[in-house]
Each structure stands twice: as structure tokens, then as C-alpha cells.
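WARN retry 2 of 3 for item q-0093 after timeout on previous attempt; input resubmitted unchanged.
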Amino acid sequence: MAKKQVKNKIPSKKYEKYTISGDKIERKKSCPKCGVGIFLADHKDRLYCGKCHYVEFKKRE
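OK item q-0093 returned
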């Protein structure tokens, strides 16, 4: 039996969801409906929750 080919996987970027200031770790924007554990996806013009479909539009400059 031949071995399966391993696809090139993109590593998770969970470290980008947090900011470090001094000794404290702070979470970036999370979903107000789902709670603290669910982050909002950062798109060009909006913040979006994939779980409950909550949307916050960014202000135009």
C-alpha cells in the first residue's frame, strides 16, 4: 500500500489574536454575542464572526 501524500498545511496564526504589553497578555476584538473565546475575523472593511454571523463595519477614513 502506498503512503498518503501530505498536503502543505498552513500553520494556525493564533498568536496574532493577542497583544503583549509588559507582563500582560491582552486579547484582540472578540465577539460580543458569542463571548470571550470567539474572535472576530479582520477583513478589509469589516469585522466578522463566523459562528453567529455578527458583523461590525469599519469606519471609512
